[in-house]
Design brief:
This protein is α+β, with helices and mostly antiparallel strands. The chain has two domains: 2-77, 3-Layer(aba) Sandwich (Glutaredoxin), CATH 3.40.30.10; 86-193, Glutathione S-transferase Yfyf (Class Pi), Chain A, domain 2 (Up-down Bundle). Helix content is 52%, strand content 7%. It has nine helices and four strands, in the order βαβαββααααααα. It has a four-stranded mixed β-sheet, covered by helices on one side. β1 (2-5), α1 and β2 form a beta-alpha-beta unit. The longest helix has 25 residues, at 86-110. The model has no long low-confidence stretch (mean pLDDT 93).
């Protein structure tokens, strides 16, 4: 199994999940500017990470799909509820929210120079979405329930773009979460997990 990733990108999410599950995978860094590795265009013609290549050469892309696939390989770890249950649909609700409202919401802030005045429209919307997450984390320790799931891995990767001190040379968005105590407590709790620490170290972020 191979995981194509970029340090501090959203591919940090499946990297964390691999560690949580104890699944060994070859980590292959992608440099989009230099178009390396040269064969990556054949792995994902769209050119972005993450991409998960299985032993038979099958490739799965899109982070929310990848993390669910990985979780289902070892359901006993509880990183995703069983398929067909309402809890699984709730998890998918959160993954969709994170993908459409949080992940995409960060894009103008990450490319602020190109986005120009649009940043001042995008930032309040993202702050509103994070206020909603903070309120949800006031009533439970993790985003989808009482235990850590793949949704927490995804949210952690995204939140780091405005929260983590180690991103100065990677992704950095001009947004701060100092006034969201539940989110900050959650972030510190997730950051302390051994699987997260190993992923950060492997990507040169710690």
């Amino acid at each position: 199994m191979k995981l194509y990733y970029m340090p501090a990108a959203c591919s940090l999410s499946p990297h964390i999940v691999l560690n949580e599950l104890g699944i060994e995978a070859e980590l292959i860094p992608v440099d989009g500017k230099k178009r390396l590795p040269a064969h990556f265009d054949s792995v994902n013609p769209l050119g972005y990470v993450p991409a998960l290549e299985l032993e038979d050469g099958t490739v799965l892309t899109e982070g929310p799909a990848i993390v669910q696939y990985l979780a289902d390989l070892k359901p006993e770890f509880g990183l995703a509820p069983a398929n067909g249950t309402f809890a699984r649909y709730r998890l998918q609700q959160w993954l969709n929210f994170l993908s459409s409202e949080i992940h995409k919401g960060f894009i103008p802030l990450l490319y602020a120079r190109l986005a120009g005045p649009y940043v001042e429209t995008a930032r309040p919307k993202l702050e509103q979405r994070y206020a909603h997450i903070d309120a949800e984390l006031a009533i439970r320790p993790y985003i989808a329930g009482d235990t850590f799931t793949v949704a927490d891995a995804y949210l952690f990767a995204l939140t780091g773009w405005g929260q983590a001190p180690w991103l100065t040379s990677y992704y950095r968005a001009d947004i701060h979460f100092d006034d969201l105590p539940n989110l900050r407590a959650w972030y510190e709790r997730v950051a302390a997990r051994p699987a997260v620490q190993r992923a950060l170290k492997a990507e040169g972020l710690h």
